[in-house]
Amino acid sequence: MSLLKSDLTRNFALGFVLGGLIVAFQISPDLGSQLVPEAVAAVIR
């Protein structure tokens, strides 16, 4: 029973994290671009 309990807990935690990420990206689609900024070349003077 303890094996089932640990697997069940792990699966609930994984589902909660993945579900939270999906909800976050549905609410704010540009969230990924805020985490990783766009590359910009330096201006030569």
Query: What count of structural domains?
Result: 1
- Which class best fits the helix and strand makeup? mainly alpha
> What average pLDDT do the residues reach?
80
- In DSSP terms (H or I, runs of 4 or more residues), the helix count works out at 2
What form results from the Cα inertia axes? elongated
* DSSP strand tally: 0
| Poorly predicted parts | none
Strand content: under 5%
Question: Which range best describes the helical content: under 10%, 10-25%, 25-40%, 40-55%, 55-70% or over 70%?
Answer: 55-70%
Transmembrane segments: 12-28
Keywords: Membrane, Transmembrane, Transmembrane helix
Short description:
The protein is an all-alpha fold.
Q: Could you characterize what this model shows?
A:
This protein has 45 residues and is an all-alpha fold. It has one domain. Helices cover 69% and strands 0% of the residues. The protein is built from two helices and no strands. It has helices spanning 2-27, 31-35. The longest helix has 26 residues, at 2-27. The protein is elongated, with a radius of gyration of 19 Å. It starts with a helix and ends in a 10-residue tail after the last helix. The mean pLDDT is 80. Keywords: Membrane, Transmembrane, Transmembrane helix. The chain crosses the membrane at residues 12-28.
